[in-house]
Amino acid sequence: MAYTVPASSAIEKFTTTDLTTLREDLTHSGLDSRQAAELVGAFLSVRGYGVSSCAARDAAMRIESYGCSLTSMQEELEKLARVM
User: Fold this and answer.
1) Against a cut of 0.85, is the pTM above it?
2) Dist CA 71 CA 54 (whole Å)
C-alpha cells in the first residue's frame, strides 16, 4: 500500500515497500554513519532527488533514533528530498 498525497500537496510520498526496504538496509546491515548517509542519498537519488551528505547523515541518525518507524522515515525523507 502506497502513501497517498492530497491533490494540493507537492510532497513526495514514498511507498511502504520502499521505506521498509530502506529501513531493513539501515538497521540490519551494520553500516557506519557515512555508509548510512550514502544509502539514504542513493535512495533519494534513484527517485530523482538530491541531498547533501551531511543532511543525509543527520537524517540517517535520526531515523535510527526514532526506531525507524515508517512515519518518521517519511518525515525525514520529505525534509531532505530536493528536486534535481
Assistant:
1) no
2) 22
